[in-house]
Design a protein that fits this description.
Blueprint lengths: L5 E7 L1 H13 L6 E5 L10 H15 L6 E7 H6 L3 H11 L4 E7 L10 H8 L10 E7 L11 H7 L4 E3 L7 H5 L4 E6 L5 H11 L2 E4 L6 H15 L9 H19 L4 E4 L6 H9 L5 E5 L8 H10 L4 E3 L18 E3 L1 H7 L4 E2 L10 H15 L5 H5 L8 H4 L5
Parallel strand pairs: 1-2, 1-3, 3-4, 5-6, 5-7, 7-8, 9-10, 9-12, 10-11, 12-13
Helix pairs in contact: 2-4, 5-8, 6-9, 10-14, 11-12
């Protein structure tokens, strides 16, 4: 939905369509969403390819105004059936020459081979960028759900230079979207966005830099220094790194005083590196007791080994088992939760409602987390209604509840 001037068409069975239709409705995005329903006979009469071509073309013919881009979502059944995707898209482009077609996939059966749906979706989001003349002073930040926070040190550094930063969140038209193809440098801060960065670098040129979100002062400084190398010719510090670190410590101290001895639970949805957050907080006296996650990325290996040795009583709790639906803390509001899943399992209304870092990056991510913890301690959020909202942009009159 971040792609400007685009319309999504999901081609799949009725039961799968039910879920995505509800999400589109919650997001007030029904006007940007259509469906083509696969029926049983399509599986044995050889008409799966024709169904996509005819169905998507029919949707496009009925749309007014015509979208510049159609995002075609095929799913598991098309891979089971072994359809000819190249044939499908060649015919779609031939029949609809004024429309660009983005190949999108909702295919969870491929999680163990090739790219999982999440990184594949982020990669395909930039697949329509065409090779363009490079602008040496343009940097593109790609693959993030949220726009980079205005207070991030990355923006601060670029603001001190004659470089520009562009994200898909800044684009309102396909022409503005294409502007990202002119970037000489592509930065990813989220691991599932890396395939997108590598694909762009290979397809249209430019240099990809993976500078992941971190909650470790030394790593943050090293990544910001890497950005300095890109945009400045000298080797001096263009930020007061010690002052930034001191600001973080001051806010963390205030958060520690506000939280007191209340136990803390963290889940994998609040930020890409929950173990790094646990390490940061435990080393400063916070009572972190639980981390809800099924697995951890390679970027978390150092934090994992550190926590295992220094804080062996920290609980790691898997969340993917279906029985977890029935796990709920009896002592209501007894935890401070970082993330919606932790809030649900701990049955607490004291929680930090960030998702995937919520656009925070650099020292600013630590400051934002500390401030949000202080707010969460002093506020009772409507946890039950917030965590059941499936899509962004949900409004009270649409689904009877409002996301905070």
């Amino acid at each position: 939905m971040l792609m400007p001037e685009a319309h999504e068409v999901f081609v799949c069975g009725a039961s799968c369509l039910r879920g995505v239709v509800l999400t589109a409705a919650e997001m007030n995005a029904i006007d940007r969403f259509s469906t083509v329903c696969i029926r049983e006979e399509n599986l044995f009469d050889g008409s799966l390819e024709d169904l996509i071509v005819d169905g998507v073309s029919d949707v496009l013919a009925k749309l007014n105004p015509k979208p510049k881009v159609i995002q075609v979502y095929t799913n598991c059944i098309h891979h089971f059936a072994g359809i000819d995707f190249d044939n499908v898209y060649d015919r779609l482009e031939e029949r609809n020459p004024d429309t660009m077609f983005m190949r999108c996939y909702m295919n969870p059966i491929m999680r163990k081979s090739g790219l999982a749906p999440d990184p594949l979706m982020r990669k395909q989001l930039y697949s329509l960028l065409k090779k363009d003349v490079k602008d040496e002073k343009l940097i593109a930040l790609i693959g993030n759900d949220y726009r980079l926070d205005e207070n991030s040190e990355l923006r601060e550094l670029i603001g001190k230079s004659d470089y520009r930063l562009i994200e898909i969140h800044d684009t309102k038209t396909v022409l503005e979207y294409q502007e990202m193809a002119k970037a000489s440098h592509y930065i990813t801060t989220y691991l599932p966005a890396v395939p997108a960065g590598k694909s762009i670098e290979a397809r249209i040129g430019g240099t990809h830099h993976h500078l992941p979100i971190s909650y470790d002062y030394d790593e943050i400084k090293a990544e910001l220094k890497e950005i300095e190398k890109i945009i400045f010719s000298d080797e001096v510090d263009h930020l007061d790194y010690e002052a930034k670190r001191h600001e973080c410590e001051e806010l963390l101290l205030k958060a520690r005083e506000a939280v007191g001895d209340m136990p803390i639970a963290i889940d994998y949805t609040v930020a890409p590196r929950p173990l790094s957050i646990a390490k940061l907080l435990l080393d400063r006296g916070f009572k972190v007791e639980r981390v809800y996650a099924d697995s951890f990325t390679k970027e978390e290996e150092g934090a994992f080994r550190y926590l295992k040795e220094k804080y062996p009583n920290l609980e790691i709790i898997a969340v993917s088992r279906y029985e977890m639906r029935y796990v709920k803390e009896e002592n209501a509001d007894g935890f401070l939760a970082l993330g919606q899943k932790a809030a649900f399992f701990c049955n607490t209304r004291h929680f930090v409602n960030e998702v995937l870092g919520s656009g925070h990056y650099g020292y600013e991510a630590i400051r934002a987390l500390a401030q949000d913890m202080i707010t969460a301690i002093n506020t009772l959020s409507d946890m039950q209604n917030i965590v059941t909202v499936k899509g962004w942009g949900c409004e009270e009159e649409v689904c009877g509840r409002q996301q905070v």
